[in-house]
């Protein structure tokens, strides 16, 4: 599971050969959530509102990059790191 970004204790990963819809995995304090790339909807998992806000802020900045990386991992091409959120 390649980690593509880390910020404020949050890790963002894309998994090879993952299922649709296009999404990323976020981990925070031992918990995991799946977040849809297109609109930021939480597919599964639960985080505190502050953590979800940070993830959403980051996702909005990087939607195009995330979709490109999603296509790469679907084709077993290793994803490249995406700039973390810095506040």
> Based on helices, strands and strand pairing, what is the structural class?
alpha+beta
The secondary-structure element order is: EEEEEHH
The amount of beta strand, in percent, is 25-35%
**Principal-axes shape call:** globular
The first-to-last residue Cα distance is 26 Å
Number of helices: 2
Mean pLDDT across the residues is: 95
The largest sheet, given as strand count, sense and whether it forms a barrel, is: 5 strands, antiparallel
The proportion of residues forming helix, as a percent range, comes to: 25-40%
Poorly predicted runs of 5 or more residues: none
Radius of gyration: 12 Å
Extended strand count: 5
Describe, in plain words, how this protein is organized in 3D.
This protein has 2 helices and 5 strands; from the N terminus they run βββββαα. It is an alpha+beta fold and 87 residues long. A hairpin with a 2-residue loop joins strand 3 and strand 4. The protein is globular. The mean pLDDT is 95.
Annotation keywords:
5 strands, 87 residues, single chain, globular, alpha+beta
Lay out the secondary structure.
Elements: E1 3-7, E2 10-13, E3 23-28, E4 31-36, E5 42-44, H1 49-61, H2 63-74
Antiparallel strand pairs: 1-2, 2-3, 3-4, 4-5
């Amino acid at each position: 599971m390649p980690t593509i970004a880390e910020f404020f204790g949050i890790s963002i990963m894309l998994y090879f050969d993952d299922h649709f819809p296009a999404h990323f995995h976020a981990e925070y304090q031992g918990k995991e959530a799946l977040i849809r790339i297109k609109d930021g909807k939480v597919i599964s998992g639960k985080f505190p509102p502050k953590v979800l806000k940070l993830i959403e802020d980051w996702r909005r900045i990087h939607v195009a990059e995330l979709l490109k990386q999603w296509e790469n991992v679907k084709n077993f091409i290793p994803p490249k790191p995406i700039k973390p959120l810095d506040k």
